[in-house]
Amino acid sequence: MSRRCVRTVLAFCVLHTAGALGVAGDNGAQAAEVTKLVKELGHDKQATRDAVERRLTQIGWRAVPALEKELRHRDPEVSQRAQRIHGRLTSATPAQQDAIRQKAEAAFGGGRYEDAAELYGLLAYQQTYIVSNRLWLGHAYQLAGRWVDAADAYQLALDRTEFLWSHPEVRLTHPRGVWDGRTGEAEGTGAMPVSVLQTYIRRERHTQSLLDQANQIRLLIGLILREEVGDLNAAAETLAQPTGYVDILKQTMPELRAEYEDYLRLRMDGEKVEREHSLHLGLIYPLWCLAELARTQERMGQKAAALATWNRVRLIRLLYGSGHYTCDIAAMGRLLQGLGGDGPLPNKGPLLVMSPEKESYNLDFADPKTLARAHATPYMGGMPGWRFVCSAPPGLEIGALEVSCDIEQRDLRYGGQFSCWLRPEGLWRIELGRISWPNGKAAGRDVVTKRFDIPAGAGVVHIQSNSGRGRFRVHGLTIRPTFRPRAADGVVPTGGAKIQNRALPEGGVLTYDGKKLRNRTACTGFPVGEHTFSYEIPGRTDGKQIAATLEPGRRYGLFINLDSPFASTLTNLHRLSAHPPAHSSLVRLPDGRWLAAYAILQGQGYHTQPKIMLSTSRDLATWDTPWELPHNSVFGSCTPSLVVDEKGAIWLAWFSNRLHLERTGGGYRLWLASSRDGKVWSRPMSMDRGRNGAGTRVQLARSPKGKYWLFVENRVASADSPSDLGQPSPIVINGQTPDWVGSPHVVWDSESRMHMVYFAAGGAIWHTTSGDGTQWTEPVTILAGKEGQHVSNPQLILGREQRALLYEDGRGDAWLQRLTPGANPKGIEQVGSPVMIADHLAPLAGSRVCLTPDGRLVALAGSDTVWLLHGKLDKILRGPPQPD
């Protein structure tokens, strides 16, 4: 670029940012000023008109919307001046735009988000069709915490995307207007052959990618308006208008029900109904918008409208095969109870609202009108039968269901005709029982009846009837409910507990409060309260005893292994996520307390969002009430890593998809922030430009010499202070930069040499060392992969002479493998067999171990309930005493 061009670019930037930067943060006053100035473009005095023109030019891009309204003003003077100013503000050359973009990216990368917003604002109104400029304007505003401005900027991006979707000829004419929604950036920077463009547009119109992108932006705007701005009306209005699919989304409920009943008749007659593949994929985000609309309507107190919206989601999903979103049945039951007993109750939705005035309810499985009430059908992928939901009217709850199942049994070897269960909000599935063809009864047709008692606080009750593909057939159900007054708020059924004891040796006795339980089986249905679980073997003194207080509404997973050097203590934390891995992190604060950061899942089904929670504890078992990481917002956040610097400041590295529209697993970037108390955090700083999955892990660590390190996949960053950590750079292993390094974990030995373990393709775990953290030695396999087995999340434990490896397998079990001493000239070798330390019922799920001042290794493990795994470092490394 010539010097003259550079001067022109700098002059453009200075001219159009000086005024805007001067009033940043006072958009209301500025908008009022712009409105007043625009009215004075036709002032009687030319000096005033000239001054107004100069001031509007100085204000810059924020004046563009008001100027666009005056471009065709009836007064030629006003029109000409508006056009002249508008042209100055929206006609930057490509070179000028590239220079502005570079300045914006530098400001964004440095955390100067207001400055970045002003620069992206210059680009947002240029006479191009690039959507990403407007998206980055929204990104800069949301990272600056200016949520109203962010919603407005995303609305600009939505307007541009909808325009491109509805005008394919514009995309043909303007190659730079083709937007890749996966990256949020425009594809290509120059001319593209027309033949290539035409091919691309045909493919794009077929997959309707721009339509998906528009609905992704709409969903984001609606969530921001609801959660951050607090404008429920604006959020509902936004979410209620998904782009495209007007014929489908705007059908009346009677039309949808009639069409769905016709569809069921065809399927019941054996006809296969073809659906356009792109249609069911394209409906993912429109249905997500409608689901969030239902939640917004509930917050607004519009319970009947919310129920109707949920029913619309159900019918569209079932009718058009969009199986990626399911109804929130627990929410529907809650909405029904909130309607009150004096109004009309819904009778066409998925809830079978029963009444004490009616003795029984018949479900005829040959009647499409009956089957249209099901919220899941055998015509959905992976579904074996029909699922219904039974509910009591407001003020009551179901006390029991007597179910008579009309079964035609042809093959006596097959059961599973009927099942009944609960799924209270936030809980796992709680089985209540099943109906099967009685043992010893001859094949034929008969009615089998069973009573199912429903615990208090259950809410709705799920039932399912299956078909056996010629082996048996259920023709219908007769349900006789009984009722009781609705339980008080907060009363929930006991989730029960499962004990995984497959790692226990033969010959022992498993007891629960002194009562013998069957060995090697999963046990459920323990009542709430204090209990003691123990395992003892006659003649041995190394039995294990675990005390636990079971609380209502929790589902417990307990793992027992006598050979494990880790003990288990039940904590009061719950809801750790295993998908994506929780990757909980522990750090000791200067005042002696511990801080935990971990991920939970919010939402239901396909559209769950991971969120990072934080909590403090004195003893690692009893934790304070957890709080959300403020930077969660409406985005996904996961896999946290904590460290405390020499000044006592807390630093957190984590992954979030807050710069990406596709919210179902991709687009996660690495972020870094600091805090003094774990509750108030600095602005998040983007640490990489990668687009990782939600399960990508990061390690933030401090070396024995006080230097800080950040490891993520095949990249590393280091600095004397966490605030100076920059973009991670590639590491070199044995002279080459690997394409991928799985979940690297680094520790330092007594000589400050770095040891890294990681897993790679093929299921093997590798070990390598380094003196500087960039150049690493030739890796050595310390755990060979086996065919059909997957290992991950390795962690190396170093002692003075011993070593050990922690890792997880594809099932979710965690293992301890002791290794040869570090001074062994033969290299690292395994010692003995691996020892299971955690089970998939209470998984480690990527959580990092931490060393306490008293020489214990600790980590959090679990899912709905969380256990503290703890053991003495020496015992973990050496193992049990060996016989002479």
Percentage beta strand: 25-35%
Q: Determine the CATH topology of the largest domain.
A: Neuraminidase
Helix content: 25-40%
Number of domains: 6
Structural class: alpha+beta
Identify the CATH class of the largest domain: Mainly Beta
Biggest sheet, open or closed, and with what strands and sense?
5 strands, mixed
Distance between the termini: 80 Å
Report the principal-axis shape: globular
Please provide the count of β strands. Answer: 43
Oligomer: single chain
Unreliable stretches (pLDDT < 50, length at least 5) are 1-12, 17-25, 174-194, 203-207
Supply the number of helical segments.
Answer: 21
Rg of Cα set: 31 Å
Q: What's this entry about, in short?
A:
By secondary structure, this protein is an alpha+beta fold.
Which SSEs are present, and which pair or pack?
Blueprint: H1 3-22, H2 27-39, H3 46-59, H4 64-68, H5 76-90, H6 94-109, H7 113-124, H8 132-143, H9 147-166, H10 168-173, E1 179-180, E2 185-186, H11 194-207, H12 209-229, H13 232-239, H14 246-249, H15 253-268, H16 277-282, H17 284-299, H18 303-320, H19 329-337, E3 351-353, E4 361-364, H20 368-371, E5 385-391, E6 396-409, E7 418-422, E8 430-435, E9 444-453, E10 461-466, E11 472-485, E12 497-500, E13 509-512, E14 515-517, E15 529-536, E16 544-550, E17 556-559, E18 567-574, E19 585-588, E20 594-602, E21 609-617, E22 627-628, E23 637-644, E24 650-656, E25 669-675, E26 685-686, E27 699-702, E28 708-712, E29 715-719, E30 729-730, E31 732-733, E32 742-748, E33 754-760, E34 764-770, E35 775-776, E36 780-783, E37 791-798, E38 803-809, E39 814-819, E40 830-838, E41 850-851, E42 856-862, E43 865-872, H21 873-878
Parallel strand pairs: 3-5, 12-17, 31-35
Antiparallel strand pairs: 1-2, 4-11, 5-10, 6-9, 6-11, 7-8, 7-10, 13-14, 13-15, 15-16, 18-43, 19-20, 20-21, 21-22, 23-24, 24-25, 25-26, 27-28, 28-29, 29-30, 32-33, 33-34, 34-36, 37-38, 38-39, 39-40, 41-42, 42-43
Helix pairs in contact: 1-3, 1-6, 1-7, 6-7, 7-8, 8-9, 9-12, 12-13, 12-17, 13-17, 15-18, 17-18
